[in-house]
Amino acid sequence: MKRSILFLLAIMCLAGCAKRANQSATDENVEVTKIYNLVILDRSGSMMPLREAAIQGYNETLEVIRNAQKQYDLEQQNLVTLTLFNNFVTDVYDCDTVQNLPNLLKQDYRPDGMTAMLDAIGLSLGKLQSKLNKLENATAVVTIISDGLENASHIYTLDRVVKLIDSMKNQGVMFVFMGTNQNVQQTASALHIDEYKVFEYSTEGMKRAWKSGIKASADYYDRMSQYNKDTRGMTKEERNNYYRDRNKKDGWFDK
């Protein structure tokens, strides 16, 4: 009886070792993709009526990214940057791992002032592109949320921002624009951003827009899992071209 028990324990140990060996072999074949999640959020005075909806929507988006990180931990490393803008541009945090991030609080988001949207986009993208250029396997999704037109930038012009966006789209970066109180399609088109969502200037309107964006985010991380498999062994240029082409084909929001 004692020998039988020892024999069964030996078999179980061998099976466990084999399983771990297979897992290690699988892990070695996985190329982890760094995904930079950049959110550029308007904090000008006119956002005050939408304050709670903006905070709630952002935090729910953050939770989607956290869940994606847990689900695809062997394939993705999700880093988050939150940039707020009014007359000034402020990074609440910059390229932090999503597991370490707290939710956005009311004291972190106090709308006032004007709308330096071009400066916010230009400064944020400049830093992001510098990081992407140094990495072999990395991409990004950039979400811009604004309730009004540009009226306070003094560093970046529209032409400079568009050149940055075009360059990064060719690197496979996904751009999303959500807006209200303006011709959103015209603003997105001027920025060369194809994916946009118009929301009603109200708490409920913003909540609906965030809800749509949250669903799109979850779909994106699922797709990135497949992209990771498809691009294994590719060069950086091949991978960027793949991301660029798939972004055009798969889009962001449900049409």
Describe this structure in words.
By secondary structure, the protein is of the alpha/beta class. The protein has a single domain, classed as Rossmann fold, CATH 3.40.50.410. Helices cover 51% and strands 19% of the residues. It is built from 7 helices and 6 strands; from the N terminus they run αβαββαβαβαβαα. The protein has a 6-stranded mixed β-sheet, with helices on both faces. Helix 2 links the parallel strand 1 and strand 2. The longest helix has 28 residues. The chain is globular, with a radius of gyration of 21 Å. About 9% of the residues have low confidence.
Layout of helices and strands:
Blueprint: H1 2-29, E1 33-42, H2 51-71, E2 76-85, E3 89-97, H3 117-133, E4 138-146, H4 158-170, E5 174-179, H5 184-190, E6 195-198, H6 203-230, H7 236-250
Parallel strand pairs: 1-2, 1-4, 4-5, 5-6
Antiparallel strand pairs: 2-3
Helix pairs in contact: 2-6, 3-4
Kindly give the count of domains: 1
At the fourth level of CATH, the homologous superfamily is: von Willebrand factor, type A domain
Whole-angstrom Rg: 21 Å
- Strand order across the biggest sheet? 3-2-1-4-5-6
Overall pLDDT: 91
User: Any idea what the shape is?
Assistant: globular
Strands, total number: 6
* Uncertain ranges: 5-26
CATH class: Alpha Beta
Helix/sheet category = alpha/beta
Reading the helices and strands in chain order gives: HEHEEHEHEHEHH
